[in-house]
Amino acid sequence: MFNTLLFLYLPLILATLLWNVIACWLVFRRRRQFSWRVRYFHYFVLLLMLPAMVCDVAGMTPDGAVLLWGAWIYPLLFFIAAAGNLGLVWKDGLRWWLIPVPLFNLWLGSIYSARYFAYLGVPLPAGLEGLLVAYAMAQSFTSHFLYVFFPIANLLPVLLLPGAAESGRPRSLNGLPAIISLLLLGLNLALIPRGYEIAASWQSPMRAEAGMEERAGFCGGVVLRIPETSFPSQTQLTSELARVDELGARAVNLFVHDNLMTDEVSADALEQFLEEIRQREIRVILTADFPEVWFASPPADREEIFDRMRPFHRFLVTRYRPELLVPFIEPYGAFVAVTGASYSAQEWESMLAEAVEGVRDVDSGVRCAVYLGQSDADLELYKRVCLPDSPVDAVGFSFYAVYETRGEVEERLARARGWISQYGQGRDHWVFEFGQSPLTMGGERAQSVYIEDVILWAASVSEMEGACVFALGDYAEKMGLVNSVGRKRPAYQACRRLFLAADRGE
What we know:
Blueprint: H1 2-30, H2 36-58, H3 73-89, H4 100-119, H5 126-142, H6 169-201, E1 219-225, H7 234-247, E2 251-256, H8 264-279, E3 283-288, H9 293-296, H10 302-320, E4 324-326, H11 334-339, H12 345-362, E5 367-372, H13 376-385, E6 394-400, H14 406-424, E7 428-435, H15 444-459, E8 464-469, H16 490-504
Parallel strand pairs: 1-2, 1-8, 2-3, 3-4, 4-5, 5-6, 6-7, 7-8
Helix pairs in contact: 1-2, 1-6, 2-3, 3-4, 4-6, 5-6, 7-8, 10-12, 12-13, 15-16
């Protein structure tokens, strides 16, 4: 998904850089009083923006962790841009209509500086965390919802003020970034009260650990994502396994891609990794992730979906023999986001029955599962898969705190409990994935409190067999218990405490 979004946004990023270069050239050509130092300093900053952005994004993923130590350049460039803007705004008299440009660059520099230091573990006050939430909301509203999980780049077309001509085309060129900056700065500021409300709501103490002592055998687990493009090295897998051991996790939900069918080396490495997990008596859940090509070229119909996914399901069952297989992720969540297609609850029940039949033709001992969100469409499907003749063996949920206060999340959990009480009694349930990004949703304390709340909620529901935190490491979503350079966040220790309490039956 990360690669696809970067592919989609890269042309816009490059167009933004080209816009600035052309605008600068026009202005400098008209106004020869700008020295060559001003001109080439401006170009130098523009050229640094793209590699600095790459350091900021890739440095927060395990594969690119070394780049994190250069990510500080990204916010610094916004401050430098603001300084250059101010010099032009006040050159030969105040041009007040250009002031939003340096102000917005100062805002961006402050936000990305706070993100960077927070990622390294520097605690931030709740007020500053609220600003980060407000900025994440603005990113989503102005570009793409998935920005909350994938802050790929700052797509706002303001890097440096191109120049300030007295009249003519260069002046109109300067007017566009000024207007955009004013609107976007206004949007960010308007969202601050909501951002602060969200961040502050997660600062209250965690709930009492009631219910853990009654749920001996409850499986606290973690999600591991096996990337499609770069399979983890043996060193990385060994490190992940050591963390699973230390956490006391009793379940692992692995997201895998169908490239394993053609990559024998990676397939063998995953098989060995799963064998080591089984030796520890940890339950194995395999989740069949969607092909990344579907983001750019979605399947046209049900037949095309099964042409791609059916061989993959059979491969996973034959090669890895999981205890639980999830053939499709979130029919009304991730599936819709990837394919753009939405099927009725009846159609999904039929599709799940077809997928499960294909799995059982290969190995009747593998159990299949489906998990849902909490929309009205999810409820209709939930009712069907909880019936005695349901095609699946287990049903569950995914929970994420996205621009929600603690109270709003608790309402969603209560609603899910109501579904289970009314339709799901006697069915095996899981929380197959749940998480919160400390980078965009209120900080590391917010992440820790959210994870504690969901684990305690799941442990208090008798139908729940376990819950898997998304994720052990920081993948593209920046939601890990451990960041890209191996620092364990407070949520890591919270999970360890609760997992071990459940394992001991305390």
